[in-house]
Design a protein that fits this description.
With about 130 residues, the chain is an alpha+beta fold. Helix content is about 45%, strand content about 20%.
Length: about 130
């Protein structure tokens, strides 16, 4: 994406970055497939955005999401507890609840998670 900035002279928006990732994944799907699911989050002039991309190069803007085995447990929690106008504290509590459920229900116990926040100030790592 930095190369795109230097070639074209402008910084990509979150939507443009998601579509660029989707087109690259679609190209390699036909050449040398790599099976990667991604969540792309960012903040630009239009505000915060989250994009869900799967290994078949489909791309969708979403309000919440998860990939992998964790998605089987976390997506239902996010569907029930996520609200449009959540505060940051409510969001952190929801993340903690999801992590707690994963530790209870998932066969592999993982005690360390990296949580990052993307806002107009940039990207910061949160300690839970």
């Amino acid at each position: 994406m930095h190369l795109q900035k230097y070639k074209n002279g402008n910084k990509l928006t979150v939507k443009e970055a998601a579509n660029w990732m989707r087109s690259e994944q679609a190209y390699y799907l036909r050449k040398e497939p790599f099976y990667v699911n991604s969540l792309l989050a960012g903040y630009d002039e239009e505000g915060p955005a989250l994009y869900w991309l799967d290994y078949l190069a489909s791309c969708q803007q979403v309000t919440r999401g998860a990939h992998g085995y964790a998605a089987y447990f976390v997506n239902s929690i996010l569907d029930n507890m996520w609200k449009k106008d959540m505060t940051e504290e409510e969001g952190i509590e929801l993340i903690k609840y999801c992590i707690n459920e994963l530790n209870k229900r998932f066969m592999l116990g993982q005690n360390k998670f990296i949580v990052k926040r993307a806002d107009k100030k940039g990207i910061t790592t949160l300690s839970l």
